[in-house]
Design brief:
Helix 2 packs across helix 3, helix 11 packs across helix 12 and helix 25 packs parallel to helix 26. The radius of gyration is 39 Å and the shape is globular. With about 1150 residues, the protein is of the alpha/beta class. The chain is about 50% helix and about 15% strand.
């Protein structure tokens, strides 16, 4: 019976999957969670390729880069297996795929497909919609109005630029009087100081949506006019005009209200009080506006509602019409209050629109000046390009000529702009159907098609503009197009789940078959039913009792009040409970029934709605119990200990006198000081810690090692880019030291930090100070791919877990609902400001309720996604706060339906845990009756036959290739005096570099400032040069520059530090690239003088005694300059700085050492 049912479901699923994967039809697939949509997508691509469609004519759009990579890997893997399969195996695979017989030509094509795919430039078009738009704009930059060399900003660069934009906008608004100035002034006076930055942030996130509204209405002014019209206001209305009109005698029933007053003394104290207020307001017409708020208190409660009792019965008995007069006035005042609220909202909304427009204009200006586009620009510019009059037809003709089939994954999360791009291309499939269809038919190829797969129940990315309704709207659009053009069309539903066990699917169906959980998830007329393929597999759904909020424990009566009373919060307590439960599964070796093996950490996924302190508590609790945990799916880089240490090191290198940063560096794994080491170094120090370390380095070896290590970094920091600096120190045992001290989990932030350094250098001047400010000035959040985290518990948000699954899923934060609604309300085709409840008019209240409903519906869809990530077991728990949990929280949405289908039982673990729960849980489970799915390791069988000849033959002799040499490369040792280091020190060339620098830029300075500038340069702390050595260097360089024989050499006509490169052929036939730098070059009309500085302490007496390395260097310079200046005489000199002495090298001697003569 069971086997028959499973076979029937398999056949039903295979039939539906085949319909969806048929290359001859367009298809729209609604695929529930775990129903194999990725397989269908892959099968359709394979069927298209097997039908003869060229790989480059298929466009597959995925939601994420990871999904695109997985799709490409699946296709290439399958094509690879086809290429190496024997005939029988290949025929079997193709018959399963196509559900038809296979001929030899199809088999031959199948074997060639992998090569065809690999030969496609840039690979098959399997990419995100953003990547596709980038490729389109790169292909048509002029038509799109973008610079051909544009770059795409990542999320971090976008946020950094927007910070500058917001600052520039506020500053500029104060400098120039404009509508923006008034808008900023109005908003800053209306908002709390903490609310305005939040508004600015929200506007920057919604800039594209505001821009669309402005474009749709034809500008800022028409949009503001539409706002006033929607609120039933004229644009010149304001609060004062409304109040003035409301207080005029003709606007209300003066006589009626006045007649009521004399009867109020028969009523209560409140009636008598109201009588005085109304009388004062009526009989002081010039002060009515001033008394208006007090007058309102007679008719309205503090909650802004009309009082139930405007006057007491005794007054009504004496004057029956008084009730009518008071009620009429209350209704009139209510309308006035609503109108005033509408005016206030209109004014604030107008200011917000001006501010948003200013943000967009400033942001666009900044991007244009840098040739940058953000992700929103990619979508918007491409949409505009494909819809523009005049150019769109040409672009579509060129673009459409390369695409015959479009496939869209996760279509429910595609937003309206993205759909418009897809529609612009796909509409051409049906509008110009005749000639193109005939062409494809004549070649025996499938008709052009569109394929989309998605699930409205899993639409959870509204913050990216996705609207669940669009999935159905676009289905109708393309279905109608296909029908009109007589193309085949299939609507396919995939409801059979291959992922989850029967209890999980039963609970899911039960939860979402009832209101309110079904609202926004399932259509009213639909019945949600998941068909489980895993009948007979063991699984369960279990709800734990919620953890109560105990609050801080009372201190002991005898304990003096000198210590702070603290307690573990309820969130931290639940984190500890979950960690202990996971630990018990692993330690006791509890069996995962469907696989017949013990539960492993990687089987467990904890899903949360938001990243709250609970996540950190859970990760910490798991680590305390020595349970491997992959951490969270997003990581704040600057909060990581290893990154803090590297930043402190950078700050120290910029300012060695900073004691706090140096102390941090000394205690980090790179140095390894303990508290005692640092105390001895810092206690009673006369100066800085750096001074103390230098002084004590000669006494204590540990200090000496640290000093030399840091001094080496200080000496190199000015010559290395940030990435080179950090990569170098990490490669020199730094990484090993960090990982051994902080553990392997520090590898991720370490790698991300280096990636940040590279990213910074790409768009910024690579300075260490700039990089450190760039990193610390913004919250760098790193997204981590926990799908690849093997052997560890995963803690993720539900959004991050989309597309993933795990045998065991735990939902911990189920008793809270989203409370914060956006300050911006999108009502029909306008924008409104969501003021606080008491300040909302009726229109804004409706818009607010609509936004709240949309948020609540997505909250329920998020629950569906969370529950369907579980394959075998699902655990639901939560914690209570001081307030009662909302009725529509996840916990209640699951708990109430489960009471009718689950069994109340006792969990021994919970009953015996330190939390002292009674252990009563609701559990729905299934026992294992099927044969377990035992995961066998693949055993590779190695062949014992001898290898083929090509595997053992020697490779052919390599051809001569182009090599690179540097003229200054030396193969000999020679002595160079160092005034700074010991002669045997590996840094003995330091002095030469300093003198080179001095002679490079000192000649450009006025004579009277040279000594002062040179002394300041040499006195820098990282040189560590004693004063007497500085004086000696100054005397030596001044002697050279003042030498009359060398005056032409250091005149303004000469050039310093000239890079030179070229290619020369040696006598051996090998071409060589020469690259070097000439210290001083003097180019005249008929001659050229080449000079190279040498700082040898014992210079030779004659050219013949010169080191051959120097001679080869000068000969190389001469050879390259001859090619560039064949009509000029070239003379080469060595300037010995020690003497000083200018030595000319004879031409014949240089020929002897010419690069041309190298063999």
């Amino acid at each position: 019976m069971m086997k028959t049912k499973i076979d029937r479901l398999y056949k039903l699923t295979e039939a539906n999957q085949h319909r969806a994967a048929d290359p001859q039809t367009s298809a729209w697939v609604s695929a529930s969670a775990g129903s194999g949509k990725t397989k269908v997508l892959t099968d359709r691509v394979l069927n298209l390729l097997l039908s003869g469609v060229s790989p480059q004519r298929v466009l597959c759009l995925t939601f994420t880069k990871a999904a695109a990579a997985e799709m490409a890997q699946r296709i290439n893997s399958e094509l690879g297996s086809w290429a190496v399969s024997n005939s029988n195996d290949l025929e079997s695979k193709l018959r399963v795929l196509t559900k038809s017989s296979v001929n030899s030509s199809q088999m031959n094509l199948a074997r060639r497909l992998l090569a065809q795919v690999l030969e496609v430039p840039d690979g098959m078009k399997i990419m995100t919609i953003h990547a596709f738009c980038q490729s389109v704009l790169s292909r048509f930059p002029i038509e799109a109005g973008v610079l051909p060399n544009f770059s795409v900003m990542d999320e971090r660069d976008t946020n950094d630029l927007l910070k500058h934009v917001r600052l520039d906008l506020i500053v500029n608004s104060q400098l120039i009087d404009s509508e923006l100035t008034f808008a900023v002034a109005n908003l800053t006076s209306s908002f709390h100081e903490s609310q305005f930055p939040e508004l600015m942030t929200e506007l920057t996130k919604s800039r594209s949506r505001v821009g669309d509204l402005i474009d749709k209405h034809g500008g800022v002014k028409p949009l503001i006019e539409a706002v006033y019209k929607t609120l039933n206001l004229s644009e010149n209305e304001d609060k004062n005009k409304i109040l003035k009109k409301a207080c005029e005698d003709v606007s209300f029933n003066f006589e009626g209200l006045n007649s009521c007053i004399k009867y109020f003394h028969h009523g209560s104290k409140i009636d008598k009080r109201n009588a005085e207020i109304i009388k004062k307001w009526l009989h002081n017409p010039h002060q009515r506006i001033d008394f208006f708020d007090e007058y309102l208190s007679c008719f309205f409660t503090k909650n802004e509602t009309i009082r139930n009792t405007l006057i007491t019965k005794r007054i009504i008995e004496k004057h029956p019409k008084s009730e009518i007069f008071m009620a009429e006035e209350a209704r009139r005042l209510h309308e006035i209050k609503q109108k005033i609220k509408s005016v206030n909202i209109a004014e604030i909304t107008s200011s917000i629109i001006h501010l948003a427009n200013g943000i967009m204009e400033t942001y666009t200006s900044h991007k244009s000046s840098r040739a940058l586009l953000d992700y929103d620009d990619l979508i918007i510019r491409t949409r505009q390009l494909l819809e523009a009059q005049g150019t769109a037809a040409w672009v579509l003709y060129k673009l459409d000529g390369g695409i015959d089939h479009i496939l869209i994954d996760e279509a429910q999360d595609t937003n309206s702009d993205q759909w418009r791009i897809i529609a612009s291309i796909a509409n051409e499939f049906y509008d110009g159907i005749g000639s193109e269809a005939e062409k494809l038919n004549s070649q025996g190829l499938p008709s052009r098609s569109i394929f989309a797969v998605g699930d409205v129940k899993q639409s959870i990315f509204s913050f990216q503009g996705a609207e669940p309704e669009e999935f159905g709207v676009m289905r109708k659009h393309f279905s109608k197009k296909a029908s009109n053009s007589q193309n085949l069309w299939e609507d396919v539903s995939l409801d059979v789940s291959f992922r989850s066990t029967e209890p999980i699917l039963k609970v899911v169906d039960s939860v979402f078959s009832k209101t309110p959980a079904s609202i926004g998830v399932v259509k009213t007329e639909e019945v949600l039913e998941h068909l489980p393929i895993r009948f007979g597999d063991g699984g369960c759904v279990e709800i734990w009792p919620p953890l109560k909020n105990k609050g801080p424990s009372a201190p002991q009566s005898w304990k003096p009040p000198i210590e702070r009373v603290s307690s573990i919060g309820v969130e931290e307590r639940l984190a500890g409970l979950i960690a202990r439960r996971i630990s018990s599964w692993i330690e006791t070796g509890e069996i995962l029934e469907s696989y017949n093996r013990p539960i492993e950490p990687s089987d467990i996924m904890v899903l949360v709605r938001r990243r709250t302190p609970f996540v950190d508590s859970l990760v910490r609790s798991l680590k305390d119990l020595s349970i491997p945990v992959a951490g969270v799916d997003r990581m704040l880089l600057t909060d990581q200990l290893v990154v803090m240490d590297l930043l402190a090191l950078g700050e120290f290198l910029l300012l060695p006198e900073d004691d706090l940063n140096l102390a941090t560096v000394l205690k980090c794994p790179l140095i390894g000081f303990n508290d005692e080491d640092l105390y001895k170094l810092a206690y009673k120090r006369p100066g800085t810690i750096w001074d103390s370390l230098r002084e004590q380095s000669s006494k204590i070896k540990k200090y000496d090692t640290a000093y030399k290590y840091l001094l080496k970094l200080l000496n190199s920091v000015d010559f290395l880019k940030p990435y080179e600096l950090y990569a170098q120190l990490l490669n020199q045992d730094g990484r090993a030291l960090i990982l051994s001290r902080l553990g392997p989990e520090s590898a991720d932030p370490l790698n991300e930090f280096l990636s940040l350094a590279l990213a910074y250098e790409k768009n910024n001047t690579p300075s260490l100070q700039g990089f450190l400010k760039w990193v610390t000035s913004s919250q760098t959040e790193i997204k981590r791919d926990l799908d690849q985290a093997t052997g560890a518990v995963r803690v993720m948000t539900v959004h991050g877990a989309k597309g993933l699954q795990a045998p065991i899923v735990i939902l911990p934060d189920t008793m809270q609902t989203p409370k914060k609604i956006s300050q911006l309300l999108w009502h029909k085709d306008i924008l409104l400001y969501a003021s606080k409840k008491s300040d909302r008019d009726e229109t804004t209240s409706r818009a607010y309720e609509n936004a709240k409903n949309i948020q609540t519906e997505e909250y329920r869809r998020l629950l569906y996604v969370a529950m369907t990530r579980a394959a075998d077991r699902l655990y639901i728990c939560g914690w209570e706060t001081k307030n009662s949990p909302p009725k529509d929280c996840w916990y209640n949405l699951i708990n109430d339906p489960m009471k009718g289908i689950a069994e109340s039982t006792k969990c021994e673990f919970l009953a015996n845990d330190s939390e002292d729960l009674n252990g009563a849980v609701l559990r729905l489970e299934s026992v294992q009756t099927q044969k377990p799915n035992i995961e066998n390791k693949i055993i590779h069988k190695f062949s014992t036959s001898p290898p083929p000849n090509w595997a053992i033959e020697l490779p052919p002799k390599e051809t001569k290739i182009l090599t690179r040499i540097s003229p200054s490369e030396s193969k000999q040792n020679y002595q160079t005096q160092s005034l700074i280091e010991n002669v045997n020190d590996k840094n003995r060339f330091h002095r030469g570099n300093i003198i080179h620098h001095l002679m490079q830029w000192l000649p450009t300075l006025p004579l009277e400032t040279r000594q002062k500038a040179a002394r300041k340069y040499l006195s820098k702390s990282y040189f560590q040069i004693p004063t007497e050595i500085i004086n000696k260097i100054l005397i030596q360089t001044e002697k050279i520059l003042q030498d009359e024989k060398l005056s032409d050499l250091f005149s303004s006509a000469s050039i310093a530090e000239v890079p030179i490169s070229g290619v020369v052929s040696g006598s051996d036939g090998l071409k060589r690239v020469i690259s070097g730098q000439i210290d001083r070059l003097l180019i005249l009309k008929r001659s050229i003088t080449v000079v190279d500085y040498k700082t040898d302490w014992n210079p030779p007496k004659s050219p013949k005694a010169v080191d051959p390395t120097y001679l080869r260097q000068m000969s190389a310079y001469q050879t390259l300059l001859k090619d560039a200046y064949p009509d000029r005489t070239i003379s080469c000199y060595l300037l010995w700085t020690e003497t000083p002495h200018l030595m000319e090298i004879p031409h014949k001697l240089l020929e002897k050492y010419s690069v041309v003569n190298i063999k």
